[in-house]
Fold this protein.
Amino acid sequence: MQLHRLVTFFKTIGDPTRLRIIKLLSQGPLHGQAIAGKLGLTPATITHHLKKLRDVNIVYERRDGNIIYFYLQPSVVQHYAHALLDLTEQNEVKKEMKEKFVERQKVIDNFFTSDGRLKNIPAQRKKKLIVLEHMLKGLKPGKRYTEKEINEHIKKFHEDYATIRREFIMNNYMYRENGIYELNPPEMWHKIDE
Amino acid sequence: MQLHRLVTFFKTIGDPTRLRIIKLLSQGPLHGQAIAGKLGLTPATITHHLKKLRDVNIVYERRDGNIIYFYLQPSVVQHYAHALLDLTEQNEVKKEMKEKFVERQKVIDNFFTSDGRLKNIPAQRKKKLIVLEHMLKGLKPGKRYTEKEINEHIKKFHEDYATIRREFIMNNYMYRENGIYELNPPEMWHKIDE
DNA sequence: TATCTAATTAGATATATATCTAATTAGTTG
DNA sequence: CAACTAATTAGATATATATCTAATTAGATA
């Protein structure tokens, strides 16, 4: 939804007379003169506001004989209300992702030296997975590696390549077939359950 | 929620600059000059808008050293979004009740003569229950009736008081003990399942 | 077709407000 | 306390708009 449409909608309902009309119509359809009477305003004024309400599609009309009844369209109102919610919820999701990222970064800062070597393998499962995933970064998805290549890669981080290589397999980050290693797609990895 | 508060809130967010500020702040807090820079406006203008945003409590501030950071308060925005939804949903409930009432009235008009006598007992269960409940109206809750009194009451609507009296009992509208009849409370009645 | 009525339009007026520049305030830091 | 800076306030201007009265239009009905 473009910003402009939201602005127009909220400007439209951000008026006491128009909100009163909405409330009135929420009880059922009414014709212009009736609305004017109930609100103590002239028909011309009501026309003015109805035009704006129609412009944002929250009101439609239907003729019955000589008089025109105006109806509220609740679904449109609900639609914009949800758009407003999204405007802030989108933010919540982003904030959550950001927090997760910060948390992971903290773990990585703690377990790797400034020149990028792993100090030791974390005991906590959650932290261990973060560390393993960090060491996975240099490997390319789809590329096939020999065991020797994998060992060399791991040794850039830590001497005990055997343990770490085993962890890669056990936690489903990679699979091995005939001594050839390959990255699994992320959706197959062991997820960190909070 | 008073109408006035809703109007003020929607008027506040019904402005392009303010909605842009809200969107910006939904990514994270910012200080005044930063907002002014990103929107291409002067700090004075930003102050003007922030004042209005604070007035409706969707923005709060926190000082860090020499600069003041402005934060969005998503819960307040969500609160008003829900109030907007309620404005239309309240209507849906009322409309439903009204429709049910109209439906019942139609059945009653069909099965009773203009002088209030029952033409015949409806075959459809749903309609029968509406008719029975209509004939229950003259009886007082809590009052104890003899069988003869019940019969007299029913005879005002229809000759076959025995059948109807039995229906009253079978559908749990009344109970009988030692030949004394009494109305059950409505929550015990047979409900009409659509 | 002529007439009636609800709705709309046109035009006037008063009020509200978004924005700017310039001056001032509040608060931090040396 | 003095100097600095971000934020606010004051005042001016231009634009938007809510409301009214009076005139006009659109549509239904006799």
